[in-house]
Amino acid sequence: MYSKNGSQKDRNEEYGEYILSRAVKSVHRTYFLDVRATKGEDLFVSITESRKRQNADGSQYYDRHKIVLYKEDILRFCEEFGVIEEFLKEQRPHYFEPTPQAVPQPTEEPATTEPSSESDVKFEDL
Fold this sequence. Notes:
Elements: H1 8-15, E1 17-25, E2 30-37, E3 43-54, E4 60-69, H2 71-91
Antiparallel strand pairs: 1-2, 2-3, 3-4
């Protein structure tokens, strides 16, 4: 997976070409939602939690945890996430009120070729 010293090129080759990338930033961590393509042009979703950590010597590194959703699991995952969203809206509607930290920030997308209209996929469509 991610190593402290691994290059971006190594990570891209291991997990596939970026098609769409979104970041959700909070105070202590960042979540990356990525749609990627395999060499066989199948799409999959990767969700990465990244937290800045500090070594004993004071140097910093990023601790990352990744979940990969393959094409056969994406629909069920989105359906179940929708159930959770509805539950939270009923139980804690204030979670869905805009806050200064929740304002979407534009993210810089990795340098890739523009996807064709056939493969132009948004996370919401999955």
